[in-house]
Amino acid sequence: MDPEFVILPMVLIGLPWLILHYVTKWKTSATITTDDEVLLDELYQLARRLDDRMDTVERLVASDNPEFQPKRLQANLEADNQQLRELDRLIAEKKGTAK
Amino acid sequence: MNSPRTTLYRDKHNAKLMGVCSGIADYTGVNALWVRLGFLVLLFTVAPILLPAYFIAGMLLSKKPPHLYVDKEEQQYWQRVRQSPKRTAREIRARFRDVDRRLAEVEHHYVSSNPRLTAEIERLR
After folding, report:
1. What are the b/e assignments for B60-96, b being 16+ CB within 10 Å?
2. Residue B78 and residue B88 in one domain
3. Interface contact flag, B109 A82, Cβ < 8 Å
4. B76 and B90 share a domain?
5. ipTM of the modeled complex
6. Whole-model pTM above 0.90?
C-alpha cells in the first residue's frame, strides 16, 4: 500500500479533528463576563489593600510588643519581595552617594 | 467593549511590526520572543496562511490603551485571570484567608497576653 493513502486521510481527517477538538474545548471553557471582570478587579484591589493594612497593623503591634512575632505562612511572597528589593535599592543608592 | 482587561489587543508599545505577537504575549503572559519564534516557525513550516492572518489581525485588533494597569503586579494578575479565572478566584480567597489568619493572630495576642493590663499591674506594684 502506498504511504500516500495513509498520510492523506490522516492529514485531512486528523488535523481538522484536532483543531475542532481544541475549538470546542475553548468554547466550553468558562469565559468571564464583564461583571466577573469588575468583581475580580474589586477583589484584587481589596485583597491588596487589606494585605497592606495588615502589614501596617502587624508592624505597629510588633513595635509596641517586642514579643509579638508575626508568622508568615508564605515566606517568599512576591509582594513583600518587591518592597524588600526597593529597600535594597534605596540603601544601595544611599551608600553610593555617601561615598 | 466593556471588559477592557480581558480583550486581546495589539501591543504597539512593544511591537516589532504591527504588535500582534507582542499583543498575544501580553495577553497570555508568554514571553514575546517565544510567541514570535513560534509564529515564524509555523509560518515557514505548516501554515503560510498565518501571514495574511497576521495582517487581518493587525487591522482588526485595536491598540492597547496606555495605562491599562497600574503596575507590573496588576498586569501579571490579569494575565493569570485570562489563563484561568477559577484559579485566580482561589488565589484571591487564599489571600483573604491569609489576612484573616494574621488578624486572628493579632487579636489572639491582645486577648491572651493583654499587655495593657500587665502594664497596669506593674505600675500598681
Report:
1. ebeebeeeeeeeeebeebbbebbeebeebbebbeebe
2. no
3. no
4. no
5. 0.74
6. no
Average pLDDT, chain B: 84
| Residue A81 touches chain B, beta carbons under 8 Å | no
pLDDT at A97 over 70: yes
- Residue B10 pairs with which residues in a beta bridge? B63
Range of the domain at A9: 1-31
Terminal alpha carbon distance of chain B: 70
Torsion of CA B50, B54, B60, B63, to 10 degrees: 150
Fill in the amino acid letter for B52. P
Do the beta carbons of residue B64 and residue B12 sit within 8 Å? Answer: yes
From B59's Cα to the closest Cα of chain A, the distance in A is 23
Number of domains forming the structure of chain A:
2
